[in-house]
Amino acid sequence: MEISFDYSIEPRFSDFDLYGIAHHSRYFYWFEEARFYFMKEIMDMTSDEVAEIRSPIIKVSCEYKKTIKHGELCIVEVKVNFSEEVSKTKFDYTLFNKDKTVIHAKGTTEHVFLNSEGKLLFQLPISVLEKLKELSAKV
Fold first, then answer.
1. pTM across the whole model
2. Which residue has the higher pLDDT, 124 or 23?
3. CB half-sphere exposure, 50, CA atoms < 13 A
4. At CA 7, angle to CA 40 and CA 62, rounded to 5?
């Protein structure tokens, strides 16, 4: 199943190099921020609930398409793909200009879930699965 969310960002001055171009490493911060707000706003989770989820990244990628210059506003479109059968989720990110007419980058992160002792779970945590199912029913 797939669920989508748009998150607006205004890159900060510190995100840019001397030439006024966003540093490539900052894209991953933006992806993470968008993922965090997806969980808070779309999945209706509190900051504490989000922080309690043990979901390390096992794979990350980013394909840079067009540079972002200082002063540009952007939108990160987040899409989450999940399955009830496995304890793994994949987030796809598309970083657009503010009008969604130019793609600056495309990225992905893949996550697994761990229990409180740090052991791999073989299914999504019940709380996460219930919220994702609830969202899917609305879409």
1. 0.86
2. 23
3. 16
4. 105
Q: How far apart are the first and last CA of the chain?
A: 10
Q: What SS3 state is found at 89? A: strand
pLDDT tens digits for range 21-31? 999 999 999 99
Are 89 and 109 contacting, i.e. CB atoms less than 8 angstroms apart?
A: no
> How are beta strands 103-112 and 57-64 bridged, if at all?
antiparallel
DSSP helix/strand/coil, 52:
helix
How is residue 97 written in tokens? 């200009």
What percentage of the chain exceeds 70 in pLDDT? 96
Round to whole Å and give the CA distance between 115 and 113.
Answer: 7
Residue 63 and residue 135: Cα distance in Å, rounded? 29
